[in-house]
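Write out the bound-state structure for alpha-D-glucopyranose.
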Amino acid sequence: MKTPVTVLGCMLFAVLVYGQGNEKLSETTNEKKMEWFSDARLGIFIHWGIYAVDGVDESWSFYNDKISHKDYMKQLDGFTANRYDPEYWAELIKKSGAGYAVLTSRHHDGVALWDTGKGGLSVVHDTPAKRELIAPFVSALRKEELKVGMYYSLSNWSHDDYNEFTKEKKRYDIAREPERWERYKEYMFGQIEEIASRFNPDLWWFDGDWEHSAEEWDAAGIRNLLLRYNPETILNSRLQGYGDYSTPEQGVPVFNPPARYWELCLTMNGNWGYQPSDTDYKTPDEIVRIFADMIGMGGNLLLNIGPKASGEIPEEQVAILEEMGRWTGKHAEAVYGTGKGIDLHYFYGPTTLSADRKTLFLFTSGTPANNLVLKGIKNNIREISVVGSGTRLEYHTTGAIDWADYPGITYISLPEEEADPSLTVLKVVLDGEIDLFNKYGPKEE
Ligand code: GLC
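---
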C-alpha cells in the first residue's frame, strides 16, 4: 500500500518531470515526417485574440478572476483586425529565418479566428473584424514556403458544455453529466476536423490538455483523426501522451531536454498576448543567444509575437524578428540542417554539427583574443574560419600526448573586426566525422 508520503513523492516527481518538458510522447512517431521540423530550428508563435483589445492576460484574466467573464467578453466589440496584413506577417516571419509559424486558432476563451460552423464564438460573427482571419494567413505562409502550424486549445472555458469556467467555478461534474461532456467533445472534434479539412496544418499545437485525461479527451481518437487527414502532420506533446514532440515552456532548459524532438516556446517580453504595459522585452541579442543555446542542445525555438487587435505587430517585436533575420541569414550554414553540438566541456559555448558531423560550428561572443579554447577533439583540424565573412583564422594546438591518444588543446585567435555584434560563429572543418576524447584526462586510473 502506498503511504501518503510516497504518493506525495510520486506527485512531486511527476510535476518535476513535466516541468522539464519530459512529457510522455507517442511511440508511433515517424522520423521521416519530423525532418522539416528538426531542420527548421526557428518557428514563430502568434498569440492573437480579443485579449489584445484591453491588453489583458489571454483567457487567464477571467479564469483567474482578475476581471469578470462579462468584461472580458466586452473586448469582442473592439477586435477590428482593420490593419491585418497577412502577407506582411508571412514576409516578416520568412525574413526572421523561421521555417514555420503557429497561430492561435482558438485559445481557452473560446473565440475562434476562423468561420467555424460548429457553434461557439468567432471573430467572424461576434466582432467588428467580421471576416475569416486564418485562411488568408495560411495562403500567405504557403506562398512563402513556410510550414503552417495551428494552436488549438482543447479546453474552452466559455462553452456551456465545458465543465470548467473559472478557477473557483466549475459548471458541472463530468461523471454526473456524461452526456453533456459528450456534447462538448462533439463540438471540439467538429472544430478540429474543420481546421484539418480547411487548412490542412503541417503541425498541431494543442494546449489546455492538463484539465482532462487522455481517455476523457479521447486523445487517441484525435491523433487518429488527424493522421487520417494527413499522415505527415506533426502533433505537439500537449495531448496526454499522444504527441510527437515535447514543448518546454518559458524556462530556457539548463540541461539537454531528454526528448528526441523538442521546441522551447518563449515570449519576447513576459506575456503571450499584446500587453502595452509590458515593456520588459528581452533584447534581440539575448534572444539570439537563447536561440543558439537551444539549437546547440538539438531543439527548436518557437518565439512568440502578440499582434495588436488591429493586426499590427508592435515595433519592438518587429525589431527582434529583423535582428533574428540578420543573424540567421549571416549564419545560415551553422543553423539549418545542423544538429546538436558537443558537450560544454569541450567548448565553453553552444555548438552545432553539420549533418555529416564533419564540421563543427562554435558560437562565441565578443573578441576573446586568444582564449577561444577547444579541448579534446581527436580529429585533425583542416581549417577554421568565420561564418559570414569566410575569413580564415589562426589557431594552434598544444599539449597533445601521443602515447595516451590525448589530443591537447586548440587556441583560436579571433580579430576584433571579425566579431559579430551578437554571437560570432566559427566553422571548424575536421578531417572526418567528429571524434571526441572521452576520458577525464590522458591517464585514466
Ligand atoms: C500556457 C497557457 C497559454 C499559452 C500557452 C503557450 O499553457 O495556458 O495561455 O497560450 O501556454 O505555451
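---
Residues 47, 58, 60, 207, 249, 265, 272 surround alpha-D-glucopyranose (CB under 6 Å).
The two ends are 46 Å apart (CA to CA).
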